[in-house]
Amino acid sequence: MNLLTDIGLEYDGIEDERLLHQINVLLRQQSTDADPDAQANANANADPPLADNDLDNFQPYLQPSASVGDRRVPTSNALDNTYVRVIHTNGVHHLAMVACRCRGSANVPLDLLGGGLMPASFDHIKTLFSTAVLNHFRLCNLELKASAYQFYQLICHMTQPLAPASVANLYHELCRMSCLWTWMKKLKWAGYGHNNKDTTNSDAGELANFCLACP
Predict the structure, then answer these.
(1) 148, 137 in Cβ contact below 8 A?
(2) Is 177 found in the same domain as 86?
(3) Please, which residues bridge with residue 76 across strands?
(4) Helix-helix angle 148-159:171-189, to 10 degrees
(5) How many domains does the chain have?
(6) Mean per-residue pLDDT, 97-105
């Protein structure tokens, strides 16, 4: 406490890093006053300032060219794996996707669907909707009468509460994927996974749920 008292400064409200820095400076001054050769040894053993070219040419995954307003959207990670957008119930995320193409590129959408992700495109996969968010939107539309626009605005606010307009506009993708997901749910409820019927040529009313109360 005597060492801190000799400084003559008020430490209330000073950041911890600044306080520790001042203490280190005082300790170095005391050590150099006791030993004149300590200053020369300290300068010789001091680490050089870290420069950008001392990082072994490590490229950051946040590329300046991918900036959206004041926020930079990641395009790939440090291993050069391409980032894809994943829309989930808690917002829009950017994750690196490494797809296994051992069985061919045509099986990648099926593998993603098996993992609970619906690709918005089957050729160039850049956007994925989780099955959880599609089920959540279906129930919100059924019970809360929420439109696709209102639901996606909620997703934008959860992603960027202070700047929801900076989130990519995926309203049309949500409408298309919700229709596709609802159609797949009806095929499942109608038992199309256990018969050899053509899923693209269903008869009128064949996908409707049977109801005993209906005439």
Answers:
(1) yes
(2) yes
(3) 82
(4) 120
(5) 2
(6) 76
User: Looking at the structure, do residues 91 and 179 belong to the same domain, yes or no?
Assistant: yes
- Rounded to two decimals, the pTM is 0.59
- Shared-domain flag, residues 39 and 123: no
User: Are the C-beta atoms of residues 98 and 107 closer than 8 Å to each other?
Assistant: no
Q: Classify 107 as helix, strand or coil.
A: helix
* Segments forming the whole domain that contains residue 115: 64-189
pLDDT, tens digit (0-9, with 9 covering 90-100), for 4-36: 444 444 444 455 667 677 777 777 776 655 555
**Do 27 and 82 belong to one domain?**
no
Continuous H helices in 97-206:
108-114, 131-143, 148-159, 171-189
Kindly report the number of other CB atoms within 10 A of residue 117's CB atom: 20
- Note the pLDDT tens digit of each residue in 82-91: 788 999 999 9
pLDDT in tens, 178-197: 999 988 888 888 777 777 77
Are residues 11 and 79 part of one domain? no
Structure tokens at 171: 């309203």
